[in-house]
Amino acid sequence: MKLIDKSIDKEGQGYVTLIPEEPEDMWHAYNLISEGDSVRSTTIRKVQSESSTGSSTSSRVRTMLTISVETIDFDTQACMLRLKGRNIEENQYVKMGAYHTLDLEMNRKFRLNKHEWDSVSMERVEMACDPTKSADVAAVIMQDGLAQICLITSSMTIVRAKIEASIPRKRKGFIQQHEKALAKFYDNIIQGILRHVDFDVVKCVLIASPGFVRDQFYEYMFQMAVKTDNKTLLENKSKFMLIHSSTGFKHSLKEILQDPAVVSKISDTKAAGEVKALENFYTTLQCEPDKAFYGKKHVEKANEAQAIETLLISDNLFRCKDVSLRKEYVHLVDSVREFGGDVKIFSSLHISGEQLEQLTGVAAILRFPMPELDEDDESENGD
Description:
The chain is α+β, with helices and mostly antiparallel strands and 383 residues long. The protein is 36% helix and 31% strand.
């Protein structure tokens, strides 16, 4: 998603102008737009015109419209968003208050105006516009004297660093020079990885090369990590994966990402954190039921006691038509973060999101047991 313009005042009222560039951006737009918002974009309108002789002709004209959104439909197959609402700005082709349907498509600019931009909406804009936030796979493609560090999102690849070095050949009497240059080259790659790869977000780091270059580099990197006690590399060792590529250039990424071993390793990495959180919730529910609760009422009571360690919430709840209810969920998210808790917002399009929907769409893992929540429930039922 490309952010063209943004104007939001202290009260949280204002607009953003965006261009969806990838299929995933349409999903972000669907989660951003709510009923009651106004959206401005280009559209095609059928216009009837009457000639001086009395005959009427119809033509299709492209025009800029601003509508107050009443219904939102998302076509997951075509990745298109259909917004229906009344026209709220003067237009020579469309009367004020007339109904019109706007189709938001990829690469078509639109302006979204809200009466109140809350923290969840702002976070969604930030996530959609900053590709590194969703880049959960990194790749180091290398050969002797050349390495490229890339971040791979679900829909694009960004080259973050290109490292080139002149490495003398291994000749008799010059072995030391060769090894010195190679070590310096490897050190630069390690620094590049530490600078550009955010291990909190990235779930898998591919190291690809022709021959045995990747194996030599991997061995050197972890020898140095042990020597310098580099906790970042040592704690994330399991995320590294060695793979063959024909060259050390970026175009080799295509063959790397088609490798079946890589496909199985990185499939669903985007939702891996959410899946793990849901597994933890089910485990806690079985082993320590007083530390795992679901349903709005229980979760809110746990939050009042500042007991929530991890909040699991479906993005579906932020699309509810009841504005005050949405505000309650936004307040819950803000409050949990304020008290130092972790918040996982699940996509309702993913299988983990569907499972969470079956648990009312909101659940929490607590820092300490709260058996009184169940007791409150029982006493209410008894009454």
